[in-house]
Amino acid sequence: APISIPTFGISNPYPSTIAVSGLTGTLSKVVVRLNGFTHTFPDDVDILLVGPAGQSVVLMSDIGGGGDAADLNLVLDDAAAASLTDNGPLASGTFRPTNFGLSDAFNAPAPAAPHGSALAAFNGSSPNGLWSLYVVDDTSGDLGIFSGGW
Fold first, then answer.
1. Which of 63, 65, 61 is nearest to 49 (CA)?
2. Going residue by residue through the chain (150 aa), what tens digit of pLDDT does each one get?
3. Dmax of the chain from CA atoms?
C-alpha cells in the first residue's frame, strides 16, 4: 500500500506493516524494496525497518540532497556495490543502507536508538511476525510518497 510522506512529521500509515507467517528456517539475507519514491527534498526523509524480534536498522537517512526524487524504485541490500548519494541526484537502483544523519529521531511506537546500519542485523532470526517500516520527514516544507509501498 502507498505510504504518504507529509511536509513534516510521520508518514501515513506510521508504521507501515507487513505480517509474515508460515515460513520455516531463519533469515540469512534481507533485501528491502521501496517502490515509487517521490519527494521534493529527499534529504528530509528518514526510514527505519524493525523486524519481528525487535531488531532495527536505519535504511536511509539524509540522502539525495535537495533535488526532486520522482517515482524511483530503490532496493536496499548489504551486498550492493554503492551507497545512496549524499547530495543527489537520486536514481533507481540497488544500494547499501545509507545514513548521513546520525541523530535521527523516530516517533513512538518506533523503538528508541541505537539502530543498526546493516540488514545483516536480521540474520539468524525468524522471518515470521510483524515487520514495520517507519518513515519520517524531519524538516518542514516538502512532501512525498512511496506510491508502491515496500
1. 61
2. 999 999 999 999 999 999 999 999 999 999 999 999 999 999 999 999 999 999 999 999 999 998 999 999 999 999 999 999 999 899 999 999 999 977 788 999 999 999 999 999 999 999 999 999 999 999 999 999 999 999
3. 45
The 3 state secondary structure assigned to 31-94 is: CEEEEEEEECCHHHEEEEEECCCCCEEEEEECCCCCCCEEEEEEEECCCCCCECCCCCCCCCEE
Instruction: Lay out the sheet containing 32-39: strands in order across.
Output: 3-5, 144-146, 32-39, 69-76, 93-95
- Residue 52 phi/psi, 5-degree rounding, is -60, -30
DSSP structure string for 88-128: ----SEEEB-EES-TT----TTSPPSP-BSSGGGGTTS-S-
Q: Which phi and psi (to 5°) does residue 120 adopt?
A: -60, -15
Strands 16-20 and 9-10: unpaired
